[in-house]
C-alpha cells in the first residue's frame, strides 16, 4: 500500500472511540479507509453519534509521527509487512473469528510471501500454558512442539515466558516454523529475556501484532491477543495452566471459534495442572502423545509418522523373546512423578540427609530430577 492509504488506515486505528467493530461498519459503508475521511460530518452522523463524527473529522495528534515511524519500519527490511482487512496477505482464518483485527503487523520470513504464509497457517496448532511451569511441563511443551515441527506443523504461541517460549523453541528445534502473536508493537520485544528467541522466530517463522509500533506491554493487550492465537490455529493444546490463567481464555476462545481443544494431564497435586484437568472435564481431548493431536486434526494418517510421538512407552519385546527387566533407580521409584519434599523422601527411603541430598544432586545433574521452589523435587519423564 502507498503512504496515503497507510495514513488512512493508521488514522482509523488511532481515532478515539473507533474500535474494530465500528471500523468494520465504516469500511462496509464507504469501501475504503481513505473514503471514510472524505465524508462530510452529516454523512458520518448517519452511521453514528455526533461524537464519533467529530472524532473522525479531527486528525489524531500522533498520526504524523506514527506514519513516519511505520514507514521507516517497513523500509528497514523485506521481512516486514502490514496486512489490513481485505488484503491478500491477511490471514483468512482470522476473518471467521468474532473480532478480526483491523491491521496486522508482520515480521519474519513467512511475511515475505502471502501464499506461503497462507499454507503454513492452514496447518498450524497453538500451544499455550503457564508462565511459571514445572520443569516437566516446560519439557513437555518443548517435546510436543518439536514433534509437531518435525511433522511439518507450524506452532503458534504468544512469546511469553514458560510454556510459550518452550513451544517456539521446540518447533524450531524440530525444523518447523513457528508464529508468535505478541501484545506489544513489533519494534519492541517483551519479555526482554526472549530477545534472542524473537530473532530466531523472525528467521524461522513470523511475529504478528495488531498493535501499532511503539505500543508498550500493557496488561490488557495480552488477553486481547489470545483470540488471534486461537484464530490462526486448527486447534489449541494447553500444556499446563492454573484455574485462573490466560491459557484458559485462549482455550475458551478456541472452543467458541469451533476449534479443537487439547490438554495434557498432570499431577492432581499440582496447581499448574488444575486448568488442564478442568478443560478435560469440559470436553477437551486428553493428550498423551503428539500423535493424539495429529490424528484428531487429521494432519497425518492414523498410525503414521511414529517419529512425531513423544513420551512413548518402551517398545514391546519381539515375539518369543524374553523381556529385559529394567532396573529402576530406587530413589527415582520413591520420587514418583509428583513433587515431593526432602522429609517425605527420607521417610520413603530411610536414607540419611547427606546421602539423600548427594543422590538427588547426581540425578539432578543427570537431568532426571528437577529442584522446585519450596524445597521440593520432581522426577522428570524420559524424553
UniProtKB/TrEMBL annotation:
Pfam families: DNA_processg_A (PF02481), DprA_N (PF21102), WHD_DprA (PF17782). Belongs to the DprA/Smf family. This is DNA-processing protein DprA. GO terms for biological process: DNA-mediated transformation. NCBIfam families: dprA (TIGR00732). Residues 318-375 form the DprA winged helix domain. Residues 82-297 form the Smf/DprA SLOG domain. Signal peptide: none annotated.
Amino acid at each position: 500500500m502507498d503512504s496515503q492509504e497507510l495514513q488512512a488506515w493508521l488514522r482509523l486505528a488511532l481515532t478515539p472511540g473507533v474500535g474494530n467493530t465500528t471500523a468494520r461498519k465504516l469500511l462496509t459503508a464507504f469501501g475504503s479507509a481513505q473514503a471514510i475521511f472524505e465524508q462530510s460530518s452529516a454523512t458520518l452522523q448517519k452511521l453514528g453519534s455526533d461524537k464519533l463524527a467529530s472524532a473522525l473529522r479531527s486528525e489524531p495528534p500522533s498520526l504524523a509521527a506514527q506514519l513516519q515511524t511505520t514507514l521507516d519500519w517497513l523500509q528497514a527490511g523485506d521481512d516486514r509487512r502490514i496486512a489490513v482487512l481485505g488484503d491478500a496477505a491477511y490471514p483468512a482464518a482470522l476473518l471467521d473469528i468474532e473480532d478480526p483485527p483491523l491491521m496486522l503487523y508482520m515480521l519474519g520470513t513467512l511475511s515475505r510471501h502471502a501464499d506461503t504464509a497462507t499454507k503454513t497457517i492452514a496447518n498450524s496448532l497453538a500451544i499455550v500454558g503457564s508462565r511459571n511451569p514445572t520443569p516437566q511441563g516446560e519439557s513437555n511443551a518443548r517435546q510436543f512442539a518439536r514433534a509437531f515441527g518435525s511433522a511439518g506443523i507450524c506452532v503458534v504461541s504468544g512469546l511469553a515466558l514458560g510454556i510459550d517460549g518452550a513451544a517456539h523453541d521446540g518447533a524450531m528445534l524440530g525444523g518447523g516454523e513457528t508464529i508468535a502473536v505478541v501484545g506489544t508493537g513489533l519494534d519492541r520485544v517483551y519479555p526482554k529475556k526472549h530477545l534472542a528467541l524473537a530473532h530466531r522466530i523472525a528467521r524461522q517463522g513470523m511475529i504478528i501484532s495488531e498493535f501499532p509500533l511503539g505500543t508498550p506491554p500493557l496488561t490488557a493487550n495480552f488477553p486481547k491477543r489470545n483470540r488471534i492465537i486461537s484464530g490462526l490455529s486448527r486447534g489449541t493444546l494447553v500444556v499446563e495452566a492454573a484455574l485462573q490463567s490466560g491459557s484458559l481464555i485462549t482455550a475458551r476462545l478456541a472452543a467458541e471459534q469451533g476449534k479443537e481443544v487439547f490438554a495434557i494431564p498432570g499431577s492432581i497435586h499440582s496447581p499448574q495442572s488444575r486448568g488442564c484437568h478442568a478443560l478435560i472435564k469440559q470436553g477437551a481431548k486428553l493428550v498423551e502423545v503428539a500423535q493424539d493431536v495429529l490424528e484428531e486434526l487429521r494432519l497425518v494418517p492414523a498410525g503414521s509418522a511414529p517419529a512425531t510421538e513423544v513420551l512413548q512407552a518402551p517398545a514391546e519385546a519381539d515375539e518369543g523373546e524374553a523381556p529385559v527387566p529394567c532396573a529402576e533407580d530406587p530413589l527415582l521409584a520413591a520420587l514418583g512423578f509428583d513433587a515431593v519434599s526432602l522429609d517425605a523422601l527420607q521417610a520413603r527411603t530411610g536414607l540419611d540427609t547427606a546421602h539423600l541430598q548427594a543422590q538427588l544432586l547426581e540425578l539432578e545433574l543427570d537431568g532426571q530430577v528437577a529442584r522446585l521452589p519450596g524445597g521440593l523435587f520432581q522426577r522428570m519423564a524420559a524424553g
